[in-house]
Predict the structure.
Amino acid sequence: MKVEQISIFLENKTGRLANVAQVLKDNSINIRALTVADSTDFGILRMIVNYPDKAFEVLKSSGFMVKKSDIIAVQIEDKTGLFFEIMELCNNNGLNIEYTYSFVEQNSNKAILFLRFDNPDMAIDLFIRNGYKLLKNEELRKI
């Protein structure tokens, strides 16, 4: 129940994000969620897209340094305190979260929380045992 995330390493220069967006647009790839971690010289653009394999190929062939990685997508109610519940559950069970980002589904009271763990299989088992809904790439494509 992992989803594929695309990570692109970019120079911290004007226009680099626009270049990525252009490649995705030209290839009919839709961004579902994204986050950018930056430093002085470079940044990492992490994205969930509707077609991760295609995105990987077109970005790589366009000269970008790109990689795919597996993360977990947890669907939760868009309600105060649920992020804390997830964090507490992970903490109480010894799970280290490397990073996280999220978005709220349009026309819904649901949010999607994307999480990268040092032990994703343990996280998947924990979420399933505690009744959380984990999404697949195909489900994210439809949102």
In short: The chain has two domains: 2-70, 71-141. The mean pLDDT is 95. The first strand starts at residue 2 and ends at 11. Strands lie at 2-11, 31-38, 42-49, 65-77, 97-104, 110-117, 133-134.
